[in-house]
Amino acid sequence: MTVESTAARKPRRSAGTTAAKSGASTTGTKSAASKRTSAAGKKSPGVPGAPGASGPGPELVQLLTPEGERVKDATYDPYVADITPEELRGLYRDMVLTRRFDAEATSLQRQGELGLWASLLGQEAAQIGSGRATREDDYVFPTYREHGVAWCRGVDPTNLLGMFRGVNNGGWDPNSNNFHLYTIVIGSQTLHATGYAMGVAKDGADSAVIAYFGDGASSQGDVAESFTFSAVYNAPVVFFCQNNQWAISEPTEKQTRVPLYQRAQGYGFPGVRVDGNDVIACLAVTKWALERARRGEGPTLVEAYTYRMGAHTTSDDPTKYRADEERESWEAKDPILRLRAYLEASNHADEGFFAELEAESEALGKRVREVVRAMPDPDHFAIFENVYADGHALVDEERAQFAAYQASFADEGEGK
Amino acid sequence: MAAEKMALAKAINESLRTALDTDPKVLIMGEDVGKLGGVFRVTDGLQKDFGEDRVIDTPLAESGIVGTAIGLALRGYRPVVEIQFDGFVFPAYDQIVTQLAKMHARALGKIKLPVVIRIPYGGGIGAVEHHSESPEALFAHVAGLKVVSPSNASDAYWMMQQAIQSDDPVIFFEPKRRYWDKGEVTTDAIPGPLHKAVVARAGSDLTLAAYGPMVKVCLEAAAAAQEEGKSIEVLDLRSMSPIDFDSVQASVEKTRRLVVVHEAPVFLGTGAEIAARITERCFYHLEAPVLRVGGYHAPYPPARLEEEYLPGLDRVLDAVDRSLAY
What we know:
- The complex is a heterodimer.
- By secondary structure, chain A is of the alpha/beta class.
- Chain A has helices at residues 30-40, 85-110, 124-133, 147-152, 162-165, 174-177, 188-203, 221-232, 263-267, 279-294, 324-331, 335-345, 351-374, 393-411; strands at 139-141, 209-214, 237-243, 246-247, 250-251, 271-275, 300-305.
- Chain A has a five-stranded parallel sheet, with helices on both faces. A two-stranded antiparallel ribbon of chain A has the order 4-5.
- In chain A, helix 10 (279-294) links the parallel strand 6 (271-275) and strand 7.
- Helix content of chain B is 36%, strand content 21%.
């Protein structure tokens, strides 16, 4: 099926299932469109009707329009056919609380409580939809922005803040929730996910692995190598690329000349582009991909077409490289608003639900604030802890020197 | 199994075989390690006996080999990966340095990364570019990695056993020009610790410290010096991270002179670290500055020049003479 993604600030009413506009791809802004014209126009990929890399294209899987209308899709509807109103409210709750947590963390960075923060604002549907598609025994390899996925995996969100506050370099036990540590080096974790998935297959387990990365990471060799390895070994891994349009200041056009999901074809496995602001579609498509993996059918690339509404990190200044209109156009496709519209229109949620959630949201913010401010600095000797599992003579020697140095302050009566 | 004379490459092969046999979680991975048995035949016959699931021919992608090995280790496997040649490790350097070395610490000790990376290294076999380098210092400098190199068949067998059993990532440098040197291997002997240096030849006038391919050169130099009435002690370091400074110190306190020998460039190399530490530890024992013999600050030269580049008997003996002249 094909559904055109409406991009204008005043969205047109989608025609539902038959809104195919052959080859017509809409972009978020005029500037983005003109970029595509200038970049892709000169050297066309040569595929008739192929959409440019920057537009969502007619192949975008969408189950919920920006206006909150449910649309049919023969392929992916079965994966959400039995979804209950309670589960839909759950998805909404996840997105709202994740956004609230994210906003709190951003504020805490501004207040000097965190050294840095990478906001997920705008990507809640991609993360909650895919995260809720995973099973408890699946294993997740995130980049550093997957706060919503962490939420779905049951990781206490305050655990995510330790590394940004500077009290540790990771800080949670990856095996507790099958949620690996954040990975800062772009794309490295896609190989770890592939290797882990190779292990899952060797074990004869029917769980699956999901690796998150961004459009910028798609340019990294490690991502290409993970595609090769996963295809060659038929590893049960889902590559979940959140194309949020920007790799810091570089647009997707600087990463690729073809839509990212089409990369998969060259490696011999399917690629799907899903509306990353549609939580139901993200849930359905990820479930489909995970089930393929479980059945032994190998890897899948899911490109969640979404938008990073905020800065890359709190150190970034997006006003230097993108226009306000672009963000505004994407705000019209806000993942939370569209699910709310659907919940309200279908009478799946009442005012009481939204009010309760608002209170819960405030409570979460308060808790995050309090926990972060109370986070103790690590013990000085943490420098030397866990450098090696089996110990190392040099670390032992330097720890002893450090201890002697520290003790020398006590001898001098420091602190009196 | 009784003592048996075998080549160093065969000793590693036997060691890998033992590990595959005793621990179902051990995997061998790399380019050409399967049917071919590796370009040096170190993994010869292993795929035939243990299958493609245990001895895995990989795509030609070093970062992919190490990155997937990390994932397999996270799943509970103990991968032993082969990098075909020293100069080819660099595409994987990012995965080794930014991921493999640090993940245990980042997880506050909750996960372990028992990955062994085998790298045939060093020159002396007349190879082309990127096939003769000695990058051990680049790895030893990185906290979280252990770096070792055997010099003989027995150590090759046992150090590989110990490296595989270690819960830490181990970079295992194999002296490729010693692959065909035969030595006694006693597979039921109880070995010393992986990171302990050993006195390969006792002496009293000067200590030569070396590892991997240079141990043999140093032993030959000591034998030649003996004819001139000099008593040279040869220390086989075996490990570059950690370095067994206690053994070096004990030897230097006895001989009062130290020359460190390695193939890698001298500048900022293993020898520099040893010279600095031993100067700190043994300043009042030393009769001469610690001297270093090694490669030059230049790309590894074409094969017809490697005899000039590599420390040989004469360069080692020249350094011995310079030290003894103080």
